[in-house]
Each structure stands twice: as C-alpha cells, then as structure tokens.
Amino acid sequence: MGATGTTSAAVTALRQAISRIAPAALPAFTRELDQAADQSRRGSDLAPLRRFIAQWAVYVHIQRRPELAADLRRWEDAARSGDAAQARAAASGIGRILDGAHAAVGLPPR
User: Fold this and answer.
1) Is the pTM of this model over 0.85?
2) Which of 9, 24, 42, 86 has its CB surrounded by the most CB atoms within 10 Å?
3) What per-residue string of b and e applies to 46-65 under the rule 16 or more CB within 10 Å gives b?
4) Inter-residue contact 87 to 78 (CB < 8 Å)
5) CA-CA-CA-CA torsion for 37, 5, 8, 72, nearest 10 degrees?
6) What does each of the 110 residues of the chain score in pLDDT, given as a tens digit?
7) Residue 54, C-beta contacts closer than 8 angstroms, at least 6 positions apart
C-alpha cells in the first residue's frame, strides 16, 4: 500500500474513532480534512495531510482517556484566566499532556 493508501486508511480510522468518542468534533474534523486535502493537492505534497492525521491522532488519544481530557480542559480554562502566572502553569500542563500524547501515538516531540 502506498503513502496515499496509508493516509486514507488513517483518515478512515480516525473518523471512526471520533464518531464513537467525540461525535461533536466530526464537523471540525471534516472541515480540517478538506483544508488539508486542498493544501496537499495544491502543493503536490502529503505534509498537510500528515500534520492533520498527527493532530487528530493526538486528539483521539486524549479523548479516549476521560481523566486526561478533563485535565486538558481544566488547563485550557486556567490559561484563559488572564493571570500571567496561572497562564504559564497552564501552558506547562497543556504541554505535558500534548507531549505525552505525541509519544503515545509514536510522534516526535512537538
């Protein structure tokens, strides 16, 4: 199977996972997929689709773990507080979650 077939299979698997664990995210998934596919076609390069797959693989990894997803939401809420120290702590917490998710799905560190 070539790179395009692998990409297509990954997109299909992600769509199925999102439809089960976070169906409300399907419109964003579809919109971002369309954008990535258009960018890939215009540039004759699979990099935009690979970035899309990586982003959504991390999202699925986090959403499959309710406690981790709740932690991420708490850190995101804290980042919006406006307090600089709290925002820095939140950025660090979000970074740890994303770094762990990247590693778990086999991606290089951010």
Assistant:
1) yes
2) 86
3) eebbbebbbebbbbbbbbeb
4) yes
5) -100
6) 455 678 889 999 999 999 999 999 999 999 999 999 999 999 999 999 999 999 999 999 999 999 999 999 999 999 988 788 899 999 999 999 999 999 999 998 77
7) 102, 105, 107
